[in-house]
Design brief:
single chain, 750 residues, alpha/beta, Transcription Regulator spoIIAA, 2 domains, 25 helices, 11 strands
Length: 750
Amino acid sequence: SLNTQFHIIKIRNMSRASSMVIDYDEPNYRDSAKQFTRQLPSYTKEYFIDLFPIFTWIHRYNLTWLVSDIIAGVTVGIVVVPQGMGYAKIAQLPAQYGLYSSFVGVCIYCIFGTSKDITIGPTAVMSLLVGQTITSVISSNPQYTGPEIAALLALFGGIVSLFIGLVRLGIIVDFIPNPAIAGFMTGSAITISVGQWPKLFGISGINTQDSAYLIFGNFFKYLPRTKVDAAFGIIGLLWLYAIRFGTQYLTKRYPKYEKPLFFFNIMRNGVLVIFGTLIAYLINIGKSTSPISILKTVPAGFNAMGVPKVNVGLLSEVAGTIPSVVIILILEHVAIAKSFGRINDYKINHNQEIIAIGVANIFGAFFGAYPNTGSFSRTAIKARSGVRTPLAGIFSAAVVVLSLYALTPAFYYIPDSILAAVIIHAVSDLVSGPKFLKQLWHINPLELGTFLAAVIITFFTTVEYGIYVSVGLSIVILLVRIARPRYSVLGRIPLQRPSDKCENADIDRYIYVPTTHRSLRDYVQPTPPGVICFRFDESLTYPNSGFISDKIIEYVRSNTRRGKPLPAKKGDRAWNDNTTPESEDTTKTVLKALVFDFSGVNNLDSTGVQMLLDVQLAVSRYADRDVEWHFAGITSPSIRSALLAGGFGVRSTGDRGEVLPVVPTNRDGPSNKGKQAMPPNTSSRSDLESGSTSDQYDHTDEKDSGLQTVQTIEYCKDRKDEHLDLGVPKDIYPLFHWNVEEAVIAASRA
């Protein structure tokens, strides 16, 4: 970025006052390019070092950290085993694929990640998307298998994510607001919960891959088919919530037992699965068929390892889903990482997190894993378990490996209704409740609309459409805000100076506020006659230039009168002149000057400059005089440079012409609609830059044009105070001002 530099020129000290004039250096892009070229080797070195964050902290690893990481890692591992198998069922995959996905991500992340808390693995939303994709593809192409489709999604989702991270495009995350993310996550959580109801009650014959509203209707239609599975599922769900709320209550009642209560709370899933499996085993003794639905055989080890098959036909089938996969991979992970980084006081690197997700999914595809990303519930558990570094993921992976090689025979009797209870309990945290909706309504109703649209679309269609709708609406709202920015016409409220020894102590100063301000509109006074002040709350660029132009011209014509009366004969008027009698109202003043508060303008492109020139020509013709344009609060040297390139900043007469005309209009000679722009007088600039302090800056004629109209701003100086009060700085260009007050004072003298 360019550093803002100043030329400071102090005017000769007068007996009672002093002031200074400040000028910016013009942006020098050539020097910036040279500086970047010189620093390119160091940038390159830093880039490759940042790819492996583990080397910034691993050399400081110690025994204390190791103990904390083991506790946190094992705790998460105990939770992820039942969750992983349950999520695999949502993804329409055998249970072991959830364990494969739980293993790879946590191993890879510690090398590339920048968050100590986050845990990568299968998640509810991603599992739902993968399951819906597998069902859709297999219904039309039965030659493909679910694991094959899932691995391909993981591979290409990882490749795209890795590319985004390597080229540092993590900024795209900032274009999707939190309400949009919360919307499709809430919709997905509701869809997942409804989809688990048939398993919770042991009801068969319901297609759980239908849209949520169909599952909801069919569930109540087939409710009489409820089996004994409901006893396991409902009791299990009650157990999970009882332990959760019970431990929260006991923690508040007995704070000294917080640690053991916390670990007992997070063990509730494992305890439920163990007891549910034991009871299921006992009731199956001596029976050839199980009276309840159970998980059955889970192969030991990593049986799906191998190079993923990249089938062109299959790739074409899933290509439309890959963008959704990438969006969930990145948004869910980065949102969780940012939240816990903020809570635990450390900063994450967006791009590096995306790289970590990409690499984890690419490697995961070789182990048979389906797309995995950051998990909110397991990340919260890991953070509360006292994790110290990302290396804790290795110990979670060790628990998963142990379960794959030593515990798979015990998985045979896990009741499906128990896994359904675990899933419903887990995804309930993803639902945004009434408090969230109420706050969102008070903050921004449009974002509430985006949230509700995402929830409704996900509920009635699929999570993929929910993602596209929420992201699309967010981008549309962003573009509308840019194309239709807020603007204000400013009035002023007088402020009395406190009395002091200065002879001018009774001079009024003003604050400038919108004339429509709800609390202050009864106190707002108009600006001086013939002066109108505008404030913009957005950059002036090509999407909003036409809108801003129309609003300025419309307001000027509505609140000032013509400088030249209309021809008496209608035949002498222009064909497009729809002027109403109000424009001839003699009680209105003729426009003399426009003041623009640019404190909220951060960017100005060529279309914006051309818009200002067009408006200047239009209002000058309407007023039948050269209307002065004053600018206040310009904070960016690039905006200042753009205005100067358009001829603003100095007094000029006539039509300045076009900056970058799309269709040149002056090839056949100058227009007869206005005078040619006069080149600004630059002699004063060279005098100022050379440090000249001639008397021409002490007193200038306000009717002079060009840069010689620099006027000093005088403030009272207490002679007993050794500090020289320079007051408000003065810009070298007479129509650029540091605040609105000085701009209005100068404009009122036009």
